[in-house]
TrEMBL record:
<dbReference type="GO" id="GO:0005737">
    <property type="term" value="C:cytoplasm"/>
</dbReference>
<dbReference type="InterPro" id="IPR035932">
    <property type="entry name" value="HflD-like_sf"/>
</dbReference>
<keyword id="KW-0963">Cytoplasm</keyword>
<dbReference type="GO" id="GO:0005886">
    <property type="term" value="C:plasma membrane"/>
</dbReference>
<dbReference type="InterPro" id="IPR007451">
    <property type="entry name" value="HflD"/>
</dbReference>
<keyword id="KW-1003">Cell membrane</keyword>
<keyword id="KW-0472">Membrane</keyword>
<protein>
    <recommendedName>
        <fullName>High frequency lysogenization protein HflD homolog</fullName>
    </recommendedName>
</protein>
<dbReference type="Pfam" id="PF04356">
    <property type="entry name" value="DUF489"/>
</dbReference>
<comment type="similarity">
    <text>Belongs to the HflD family.</text>
</comment>
Length: 206
């Protein structure tokens, strides 16, 4: 993978999490395959490349790529506004997290516990979702910048949906961290828009 492909893949992960959060908030629905891919991304600690974090297949990130493309194209007709807002918020939260060694330590200690739960129950099991949601709540949701999720209150008030949303926000911030690690920067989204789109289209069509 080229450096730009690595960056787009990780950014696709941020947007994939954002799209799924938006869908659960508005419809209460989530695909188990999509949840499995994103929760699994928290547990891949030694990937051979960035795509390996997401199960090794661009298809797993197709909706994230689509939302990212609509953001880069700046076409009001296709722009997914809420996912874009969530994605930008996750990139911002990751910057705050990077300065908090105490929080990184808690996350580093608890992920292996979640890993063993995932091995026992399966990655998308409600116990694993709930553990990931609790980890987000104990760490990132205590930062001053908070992500406000908008949707149907009936969906947002269901505890299992709330857990899924928190767990997905955690996966999005993991992807944002990965994006930084492979050389991603906020200014690229403004300055290198066309270049990113040119590289993104082939990934979208697998």
């Amino acid at each position: 993978m080229t450096p730009i492909q690595e960056q787009l893949t990780a950014l696709g992960g941020v947007f994939q999490a954002a799209v799924l959060v938006d869908r659960i908030a508005k419809t209460g629905q989530s695909s188990e395959a999509a949840m499995t891919c994103m929760l699994g991304s928290l547990l891949v600690l030694d990937p051979k490349d960035t795509l390996d974090v997401y199960g090794g297949d661009d298809l797993n990130l197709r909706e994230g790529y689509r939302a990212l493309a609509s953001a880069l194209e700046r076409d009001p007709a296709t722009l997914q506004r809420e996912p874009l807002r969530y994605a930008l918020s996750m990139l911002g939260l990751e910057r705050q997290l990077a300065k908090r060694d105490d929080m990184l330590e808690i996350i580093g200690k608890r992920l292996p516990q979640i890993q063993s739960q995932a091995e026992h129950f399966g990655v998308a099991h409600e116990n694993v979702v709930s553990a990931c949601g609790a980890l987000y709540q104990d760490t990132l949701s205590t930062l001053r910048q908070r992500i406000q999720v908008h949707g149907d209150m009936r969906n947002l008030q269901q505890p299992n949906n709330a857990s899924k949303i928190r767990a997905l926000l955690l996966t999005g911030i993991r992807s944002a961290r990965l994006w930084r690690q492979v050389g991603g920067h906020r200014w690229q989204l403004v300055v290198s828009r066309r270049k990113l789109l040119k590289e993104l289209y082939p990934l979208m069509h697998g």
